[in-house]
Design brief:
- The structure holds two protein chains of two kinds.
- Chain A is globular, with a radius of gyration of 23 Å.
- Chain A contains 14 helices and 13 strands.
- Chain A has a domain at 44-317: Spore Coat Polysaccharide Biosynthesis Protein SpsA, Chain A, CATH 3.90.550.10.
- By secondary structure, chain A is an alpha/beta fold.
- In chain A, the strands form two sheets. Chain A has a ten-stranded mixed sheet with strand order 3-4-5-2-1-6-11-8-12-7, sandwiched between helices. Chain A has a three-stranded antiparallel sheet with strand order 10-9-13.
- In chain A, helix 3 links the parallel strand 1 and strand 2.
- Chain B has a domain at 317-394.
- Helices cover 78% and strands 0% of the residues of chain B.
- Chain B has 23 helices and no strands.
- In chain B, helix 6 runs antiparallel to helix 7 (117-130) and helix 15 (241-251) runs parallel beside helix 17.
- Chain B starts with 5 loop residues before the first helix and ends with a helix.
- At the A-B interface, helix 1, helix 13 and helix 14 of A face helix 1, helix 7, helix 9, helix 11 and helix 21 of B.
């Protein structure tokens, strides 16, 4: 027993240290990359990019399922995005509310008998609508297959542009976000096959008619903690992993893909829980197998604002679902692990995802138990016990503050002193007790996955623009 | 400190982490404070310099009074560069004179030549924004820089000048193929520099081969003017399909009497994307003679060519009933379906039916339309159902 506890404690220590050292390395890399990117932007003239005849067309695919609260404003906002050649395809995925009726009324939709060829299998399309007032808009009304991936696939079948961008109906893209992300893609269009932009927390911001008017921190602590998480995940994690050419995920809320490649991998997996992660891993797989020179990248300045859960119940569901999505993708692709043909994806990022993402809650749970047991059995001195806890807390907090620093050094979306002060203050609470709460939710996710419970549980949303100008 | 063994190591790690936390917070606070002060000073000095702006421009305020102060120099340069972007030719010469007289231009040229890294790139960006011809040699030298970022900054700088002379070093660099530069950046730069003199591109196109040739043809396709007429005919018969496609695109910008005969031949090209480009070009030429080649393209074996041709025909606006009759006469059901679909998509179908109903003499055309419309609708619905069933089965 004692030997086992010793082993468990030592393993936990090494695991924790390794996890934080990796994040420290990612932080340093991200600071350097973000600074580089900012310098590069100095010579880029977006207005020139906008008027260039060589700027490629984009199709925005907007899957919508029961989105009556904000679908009209969202689509209006998307149609006003600053991009020269844009097509917007809204996929009404069997909504039971008035999503379609609202779209019909707002955009004067009329049924168009267009030939729709489902190259990628998707649930049947009931009707295709064109707008009398907006020629760039196409609405597909399809039967629901119970997954967002299926709706996106239907959109992909109708898309006509060389690039597709998937956007959530409840998210808000900044006006120049498409120009910025495509400027990143065009910098190496032969090799870049997909790119993700940064996703930020919309809660607390002032929104009017689907447009972001003012950036502010949310009021509730649970939302502020998610702001820190998002900053860390995007500004540090995505940026650094992209630099190492091993970006494992492009957020489903805002990502751009080469349409031909997405079709080549047969689109999004219809019943994938984390369809965004699953698609990127399958793209890596195909491109590595074909030995193609490619790059899946992250561009840190194009911004998408999205609503995050504002209550513990919704947050718990979201985190459980994310963890289910993780295993749902890692398990079918386990054959890529440590196989030379998959390069750094097989040797670097997938092992990292298994060890430091999927197993994290399990290792942490075992670790907490063994430490408490060792302490109770007198194997661990009180001094050592406390030191260990303080170390774990302090190191992780350092990384969190590092993500706030990175935001300060680069994009500074929270310009007010008090907001930055609050962010720094909440960094102190992220690793106790918030981290332990997410641990439980992630364990729930594993448990649900093992039980075969793959249901999508609704998240409570306030809506970003229900009635004119308001705080989200 | 007593030897604590493993606990000592952890203690050190804690101290390191706490020191890191403290330093990061202190850095954020100090940086915010410093930036606040900097922007306050910037605002004050900008106001002061703006109030003497006419004097600065004319030279009545001696350059020494602001050139030797870093902040003032930065402010004046940024105002000058911003003004240059919006200036017409008269204003431009005044602004450039100020840059030259004050030595700011020479300073940037010097920096672009002797500095490295970000300083050099900043100088290159500023030089490009001046739109001054004397900036071109320094920008051209940077095209040989070992770092890609510097080369990109140089190309973007040359593009900003919008001068045809600035295209020459880019074209030389492209043809020699010494250093790689992203294609999109190159194309935009060439388009920007050669907008008013695309003939420069043609000269280089004749000397080039392979990928650079395709790239030049693509840019030329966007910029071609009537001056290039006969050369474009040569390109339309080029052995490289990409070049032919670009020539087709370019022909869309020329006089119908010149372009139509060539494009009418090109709709029969062996490559589908050349035919597509020819159809797109035909769509942009407002001339009655385009209908026949478009009808030919409507029967093309390639779906995209058919669709584009249908789009062009459906958007002609007048004589749709005649066109409909000619489409029916092709006896090509794919062509008919594409045309009717496009009429529906464009919303022209109701007007057409109404127009036919108001002209009893055109009963035959009306019947054809209604019959084919009905058949097409059924066809499309059946096709969609079949595809949906196939998709479901998969």
């Amino acid at each position: 027993m004692r030997a086992w506890l010793d082993l468990a404690n030592n393993t936990l220590f090494v695991y924790y240290l390794a996890s934080n050292l990796i994040y420290l390395l990612l932080l340093i890399t991200a600071i350097s990359r973000n600074t580089w990117h900012r310098h590069r932007l100095a010579s880029l003239r977006l207005e020139r990019f906008k008027i260039s005849p060589f700027t490629p067309p984009i199709t925005l695919i907007v899957p919508a399922h029961n989105e009556e609260a904000f679908i009209t404003d969202s689509i209006r906002a998307l149609l006003t995005l600053d991009y020269p050649s844009l097509e917007v395809i809204v996929v009404n995925d069997g909504s039971r509310d008035n999503t379609l009726a609202q779209l019909k009324a707002a955009f004067r939709l009329r049924a168009a008998r267009l030939l729709y060829i489902p190259d990628i299998p998707a649930a049947p399309v009931r009707q295709i609508y064109k707008s009398d007032v907006e020629s760039r808009l196409l609405v597909l009304d399809k039967e629901s297959a119970g997954s967002k991936a299926d709706a996106i696939n239907a959109g992909l079948n109708a898309a006509t542009s060389p690039y597709v961008c998937v956007v959530d109906a409840d998210s808000i893209l900044e006006k120049d976000s498409l120009l910025r992300i495509m400027a990143g893609v065009s910098s190496d269009s032969q090799r870049i096959v997909a790119a993700g932009g940064i996703v930020r927390v919309l809660n607390g911001c002032r929104v009017s008619a689907g447009e972001l008017k003012q950036v502010s921190l949310p009021r509730h602590s649970i939302e502020i903690l998610q702001v820190i998480e998002y900053l860390r995940a995007f500004l540090i994690g995505r940026e650094a992993w992209a630099y190492f050419k091993a970006l494992p995920i492009i957020s489903g809320a805002f990502g751009i893909f080469r349409a031909d490649l997405v079709r080549e991998v047969k689109g999004f997996r219809p019943h994938a829980i984390g369809e965004d992660f699953d698609l990127v891993v399958r793209m890596h797989r195909l491109l590595q197998e074909q030995k193609r020179d490619y790059h899946i990248t992250f561009v840190p300045d194009p911004t998408c604002w999205t609503e995050v859960p504002g209550d513990l119940r919704s947050l718990a569901r979201q985190r459980a679902r994310w963890h289910k999505g993780l295993i749902d993708t890692l398990w079918p692709n386990r054959d890529m692990l440590f196989r030379p043909r998959y390069g750094r994806v097989g040797f670097l990022i997938l092992p990292y995802m298994w060890i430091f993402e999927f197993f994290a809650p399990i290792v942490e749970l075992i670790g907490y138990t063994s430490i408490v047991l060792a302490f109770a059995l007198g194997m661990l001195g009180r001094q050592f016990f406390l030191l260990f806890l303080i170390f774990g807390y302090a190191f992780a907090t350092l990384i969190s503050i590092g993500s706030v620093l990175l935001e300060e050094l680069t994009y500074r979306r929270y310009s007010d002193w008090r907001e930055v002060g609050r962010l720094l203050l909440f960094c102190l609470f992220e690793h106790f007790p918030y981290r332990q709460m997410t641990l439980i939710w992630r364990l729930q996710g594993i448990w649900q996955y093992l039980r075969g419970d793959l249901r999508w549980r609704e998240m409570k949303r306030t809506g970003v623009s229900n009635a004119g100008e308001q705080d989200a | 400190m007593p030897d604590l063994g493993f606990a000592g190591l952890i203690l050190k790690a804690i101290l390191f982490s706490l020191a890191g936390i403290f330093l990061l917070i202190a850095f954020i606070a100090l940086r915010r404070w410093y930036r606040g002060r900097y922007f306050q000073r910037l605002s004050e000095r900008t106001f002061a310099l703006r109030s003497q702006w006419d004097g600065i421009l004319s030279g009545a305020v001696p350059a020494e009074s602001w050139r030797l102060n870093n902040l003032d120099c930065e402010i004046v340069e940024s105002i000058l560069l911003a003004s240059i972007e919006l200036a017409d030719s008269d204003e431009l010469s005044t602004l450039l004179n100020c840059l030259r007289r004050s030595g700011l231009l020479d300073m940037r040229i010097h920096q672009a030549r002797v500095t490295t890294g970000w300083k050099r790139r900043t100088a290159l960006v500023a030089l490009g924004r001046t739109r001054a011809p004397e900036a071109i040699p320094a920008l051209a030298e940077a095209l040989d820089a070992p770092e890609e970022e510097t080369r990109i900054a140089a190309v973007r700088g040359l593009a900003n000048t919008e001068l045809p002379e600035a295209a020459i070093p880019i074209l030389d660099c492209l043809l020699l193929g010494k250093r790689s530069i992203p294609e999109h950046t190159l194309k935009n730069a060439l388009a920007s520099c050669c907008r008013h003199s695309p003939g420069v591109l043609l000269r280089y196109l004749k000397q080039s081969s392979g990928r650079p040739r395709e790239l030049l043809a693509r840019v030329l396709g966007e910029l071609a003017s009537s001056d290039l007429g006969e050369d474009l005919i040569l390109l339309a018969t080029d052995s490289d399909a990409e070049v032919r496609a670009s020539a087709a695109r370019a022909l869309g910008n020329l006089q119908p009497s010149f372009a139509l005969p060539v494009l009418s031949v090109m709709v029969g090209d062996k490559e589908w994307f050349v035919r597509l480009r020819a159809v797109v070009a035909l769509a942009s030429i407002k001339h009655a003679l385009r209908i026949r080649p478009l009808l030919h393209a409507l029967c093309d074996p390639n779906r995209y060519v058919r669709q584009r041709s249908a789009w062009a025909l459906a958007h002609i606006g007048s004589n749709l009933d005649d066109i409909l009759t000619q489409v029916v006469e092709t006896k090509d059901n794919y062509a008919l379906q594409a045309f009717i679909s496009e009429l529906e998509r464009s919303g022209a179908i109701e007007n057409l039916v109404e127009a036919l109903e108001n002209h009893p003499g055109q009963n035959a055309a009306r019947n054809i339309l209604l019959r084919t419309l009905n058949v097409c609708r059924q066809d499309i619905e059946q096709a969609n159902k079949a595809f949906a069933a196939a998709g479901g089965a998969k």
